[in-house]
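Database export, one record per block. Field names are fixed; values are copied verbatim from the stored entry.
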Amino acid sequence: MEVKKIYLLFLFFLLTNSCSSGSEKEVLSISDNNTEIHQTNNQQPTLSSNSTGVFRFTSEGHFSNRTINVYYHIPDGDIKSMPVLMSFHGASRNAVDYRDYWISMANSSKFMVFAPEFQSADFSSDEYNLGNIFDDGDNPSVGTFNPSNEWTFSILDPLFEYIKNEISGNQENYNGWGHSAGCQFLHRFVLYMPESKLNIAVCSNAGWYTVPESGINFPYGLNQSQLSSNTLTLAFSKILYVHLAENDTDPNAASLRHNEIVDEQQGLHRRARGRYFYSTSEQTAQQEQILFNWIKTSEVPNVAHNSNLMAQDAIKYLFPEE
């Protein structure tokens, strides 16, 4: 009996250790995979050189009930004067990737990157892609036109000021890059808030655009847009690069919007729609004799709808080598 008891105790010891060890590994695995998420509990992070992480930001006013994750990377160097890039994710809302694309380039070119995450649970496509300009962007009206402090764009300058405050910075502006849905967000930001502290915008591979042309209703054109001629004049004076991929020509791409209006107006795929957006914007500026600082870049060869590769090409427009 004594031998049996010892044997049973030995088995119990092995099973207990095995279960405990397995549980510990699972916890460590979860912790390892989400190390940065734990940092989001810190409302006021200490941003420092040579650091990578995420913090939570809450703006005042209309969006004070929504807190966003901001993924960041800061290279080694003088962060008080280091340029700032904001990177805007696509429809997958994968802001962490939109930070990571830039890490090695940020280290080489010495700029900080911040990728705000507009999670779908908190920001619908109307509120992200279309900036919450209207309650329902596909059915615009005077009565549903929101004041500018309710536009999602209004989060960005306060975020920039928050970053400056954290680093005691002297930066006067920031640059922006957006791909796909992020490009939709960014080009509408330029159109509707041209007096922001955004300096250079590189807009890559949007699925479709708000084109500065009359005769077509918002969100595809200027009719019902409530966009004033003075605001459009200021928007055309901003530095905006229309940045397209040579092979982004799939008319059946996932999530690409199709209807009679946008297909007839802008074309059947992203490259065609980007070309149309730029050429029509240029024509509008010429007709109105408005200063036009928008530029269409060379189309990125042998690339389709690839955010990482587009980022690697976009850097030369955002931070050109002197």
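Remark 1: Confidence is low (pLDDT under 50) at residues 1-42.
Remark 2: Residues 1-33 form one domain.
End of record.
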